[in-house]
Design goal:
Length: 234
């Protein structure tokens, strides 16, 4: 029954292709990466990804049609969340594959970081030991909702947009290690630049919370991580 066999194979691979089509856009990949950090409304996602609300809504509908994201009413607002842990694993795998096969990834990264101080990789084991000893301050510079959803255990929350106005809260007598959403997140880069310009000893941790947790390292979350985010009724 070659005809029936062929239909079966075609139908199956057509379903697989839906995932590939949904992922075939850089903005949608970034939106998924953001949702792997924490659930968000359309408005919050649009601001974080530098997109219009209308564009963000269209991308989310494509992702939702492929069951990569889910949306649910939270009071007057629709909050989007990732479709499941496998989606975040897929995003990480895509990044790893691109790093392995596409030389341009390294060139783009090197060009961006060239000349910036404090960007050398931080040793994880040494960092954990220093946190235990109280000889280093770990700073989470992501938005507060991401910190509440999950953060490196012992890290302080100080969103990048508040950093300059709250420098007085940070110790001058020990190194500060800033992190955000992983090696391609620029918030920790900017945070280290600000801290060093103000006389602090600062370095950048490339790991995201997901990467930290995947290595069996300690993470924490706050009970109010589901707090409503600002947005428009939908």
């Amino acid at each position: 029954m070659p005809g029936e066999d062929r239909r079966f194979k075609s139908d199956i691979y057509e379903q697989f292709a839906k995932i590939g089509k949904a992922l075939g856009n850089p903005s949608r990949l970034e939106l998924l990466d953001l949702l792997c950090e924490a659930p968000r409304t359309v408005e919050v996602l649009a601001k974080a990804a530098g997109l219009s609300v209308a564009n963000t809504s269209r991308h989310l509908q494509v992702l939702r049609s492929a069951s990569l994201v889910e949306g649910s009413k939270n009071g007057l607002y629709v909050e989007y969340r990732i479709g499941g842990p496998a989606v975040c694993q897929l995003i990480t795998s895509i990044r790893t594959l691109a790093e392995d096969r596409l030389a341009e990834v390294e060139r783009i990264t090197r060009r961006f970081l060239d000349g910036k101080q404090g960007m050398d990789p931080v040793d994880r084991d040494e960092l954990i030991q220093r946190v235990r000893e109280g000889s280093v301050t770990v700073l989470d510079v992501r938005p507060e909702e991401e910190y509440r959803a999950g953060h490196i255990a012992g890290a302080l929350s100080l969103p990048l947009e508040q950093l300059e106005s709250r420098l007085g809260e940070l110790p001058k007598d020990q190194e500060i290690v800033a992190y955000c959403r992983g090696p391609y997140c620029v918030m920790s880069v900017k945070a280290v630049e600000i801290l060093r310009a103000r006389g602090f000893s600062a370095a950048r941790l490339e790991d995201s919370v997901r990467e930290w947790a995947s290595r069996g390292l300690p993470v924490a979350a706050e009970k109010d991580s589901g707090r409503r985010q600002k947005g428009r009724p939908r």
